[in-house]
From TrEMBL:
Nitronate monooxygenase that uses molecular oxygen to catalyze the oxidative denitrification of alkyl nitronates. Acts on propionate 3-nitronate (P3N), the presumed physiological substrate. Probably functions in the detoxification of P3N, a metabolic poison produced by plants and fungi as a defense mechanism. Gene3D superfamilies: Aldolase class I. CDD domains: NPD_like. It comes from the Bacteria. Keywords: Flavoprotein, FMN, Monooxygenase, Oxidoreductase. InterPro entries: Aldolase_TIM (IPR013785), NMO (IPR004136). Pfam families: NMO. GO terms for molecular function: nitronate monooxygenase activity. This is Probable nitronate monooxygenase. SUPFAM superfamilies: Inosine monophosphate dehydrogenase (IMPDH) (SSF51412).
Length: 324
């Protein structure tokens, strides 16, 4: 399988593993890049010395391309993350924003990263951001739909992908949000995607360095078990509906937005770490998972989500066209 995404990023298969804070650490990144996809370090909130250590671990284990996450949002972390990507010569910057993408800021940081030899993968949530990313010089654009794991995006994946592929042709588009099986990738190809990004599906792999209980919770969850929490903070994210999530929802439902925000922050503090590292996934741990959990039925090896996935993706496409 080879196309513009593979050529630009120097990878074998157009499969990108989404950046996941404190989840896509070096073991997962190495496994994905070694399998021929693009592994992405969840470095968006990491201090510089941890980014450097993670990059070193990746480099020790693979010579394949990989990426590191940078949030293009104002604040000290933007400068720390950008400089760490440059200093550590990370080949690809995976640039996301929690707000609307501003052209001047995008151009400034894309140019700086390009000058250091990085390729730019821009992840966007709406058409206007995709157009800004294209104009500012992104090399690849990921269009992430609302169903995708992590912070809830805005627009449904099917609408967003069609909007972006209808309006942008100079930059290849990668579909993201709710993808776990090859037939979905085939459907995205028909709409114009040249690659797929998966996040939640990569959490439920043997190589992902989170606690087994997190992986099993994703495997066990059905579609309606995934709920959106935290709109009072302005950054709602998808998580599995456990006892912690129920308490968080109650805080949001029984308080004004302003009053709920600090209570929510206090009740959820450290909850991702408690689930990911300690494996407590019911009372105090938050299991972040996109709506796609209902399509994930087992813990799989990374290779199944990269090379094997692409073989079946091509077969699905051939089958689709013979149906017409
Ligand atoms: C546990 C978890 C943590 C995430 N953390 C981040 C992050 O730090 N930065 C980011 O850009 N996206 C983050 N995401 C979003 C993923 O990079 C990706 O865009 C998303 O998971 C794709 O949707 P899917 O989960 O349906 O495959 C996270 C997703 C999950 C499941």
């Amino acid at each position: 399988m080879s196309n513009r995404v593979c050529d630009i990023l120097g990878i074998e298969y157009p499969v990108i593993q989404g950046a996941m804070a404190w989840t896509s650490m070096s073991p997962l990144v190495v496994a994905v890049s070694e399998a021929g996809g693009l592994g992405v370090l969840g470095s968006g909130f990491m201090p510089a010395h941890i980014i450097a250590a993670q990059v070193e671990e990746v480099r020790k284990a693979t010579d394949k391309p990989f990426a590191a996450n940078l949030f293009l949002d104002p604040g000290p972390q933007l400068e720390i993350g950008c400089q760490a990507i440059i200093d550590n010569k990370v080949p690809v910057a995976y640039v996301d924003t929690l707000n609307l993408l501003e052209y001047d800021m995008a151009k400034k940081y894309y140019d700086r990263l390009h000058a250091a030899g990085c390729k730019i993968v821009a992840k966007i949530n709406c058409l206007s951001d995709a157009l800004v990313a294209e104009k500012a010089g992104a090399d690849v654009i990921i269009a992430k739909g609302v169903e995708g794991g992590g912070h809830c995006a805005k627009i449904s994946g099917s609408v967003l992908l069609a909007e972006v592929t209808q309006n942008i042709s100079s930059v290849p588009i990668v579909a993201s949000g709710g993808i776990a099986i090859p037939i979905q990738a085939a459907a995205c190809t028909v709409v114009g995607a040249e690659g797929v990004e998966m996040g939640t599906a990569f959490v439920a792999t043997f190589e992902c360095p989170v606690h087994e209980n997190v992986k099993n919770a994703i495997v066990k969850a059905q579609d309606i078990d995934i709920i959106s929490c935290g709109s009072c903070t302005g950054e709602p994210s998808w998580q599995i509906n456990n006892n912690l999530a129920k308490r968080l929802v109650e805080i949001e439902e029984t308080n004004t937005k302003v009053a709920a925000a600090p209570l929510f922050m206090e009740a959820s503090e450290g909850s991702l770490r408690i689930a990911s590292l300690e494996g407590e996934v019911e009372e105090a741990g938050a299991v972040l998972s996109g709506q796609v959990a209902g399509l994930i039925h087992s813990i799989r090896p990374v290779k199944e989500l990269v090379a094997d996935f692409c073989v079946e993706w091509e077969a699905c496409l051939k089958q689709t066209y013979t149906l017409m």
